[in-house]
Amino acid sequence: MIAITGVSGLLGRQVVEDLLQNVAAKDIVAIVRTPSKVSDLSERGVQVRGADYNDKAAMAQALSGVEKLLLISSSEVGKRAAQHGNVIEAAKNAGVKLIAYTSLLHADSSPLGLADEHIETEKMLKESGIPFVLLRNGWYTENYIASVPPALQHGVFIGSAGEGKIASASRADYAAAAAKVMTLENQGGKVYELAGDRGWTLPELAAEVSKQSGKQVVYQNLSETDFNAALLAAGLPEGLAAMLANSDVGASKGGLFDDSRTLSKLIGRPTTSLAESVSAAL
Fold first, then answer.
1. Has residue 63 been placed in a domain?
2. For position 89, which CATH number holds?
3. DSSP code for 140
4. What is the per-residue pLDDT across 42-59, written as a single tens digit (0 to 9) for each?
5. N or C: which end of the chain has fewer CB within 10 A?
């Protein structure tokens, strides 16, 4: 059986949908904090089991009979390492034979502060003795596309990435990669650096939005401090604003770029282009 954590989230849900194309529903375990949120999966034959990243006992029970586990990183920045440690320990107690983990692009050399908890998790996986595979995901294009509406409203797209190239891909691209890896054999020890086929800059994103919308949008580069303040003023939580501002600065240093095309080779098709993502958003 193949288990996926965080299935009520957008990535986890899409992975299950992709797996259902090639794996019998009864052989898929969807682990979620609130099972009622994915009751439709139960109706389709998927085994929905309730467990929380903070509850090792419940997680071990949810992993009973599972051979392969896709551990999707927690969304709670600052609490991730401890939560991931709970899942890894539960997987060991349950006899799981392979863990795939959604880490961060080039986590071991990344300038992003976000990398710290991923590095810690990768270390725990090594120490666990369980065979594991790392899906080091780059940035989701959706992370930036979410800012298109206010950019159109104000005519300005703000950030701190300068001319740093961002090789993003869509959430669907990363989900397809995870689903593919979960169905392949002999994945223990592999590290996949996953990113979009073509890098782009925030000025290029602003230009693409202008081109497709017919409204002039320019990019304004801010300091990390000023960008953080702008995100707070827009209503973002303090931790999220700080993470996004720091990640933009990391992008300016090359932290979100990779040109290996590992992702498109793995999923057997080109990754979703920036133009496609902008078009979908508009």
1. yes
2. 3.40.50.720
3. B
4. 999 999 999 999 988 999
5. C
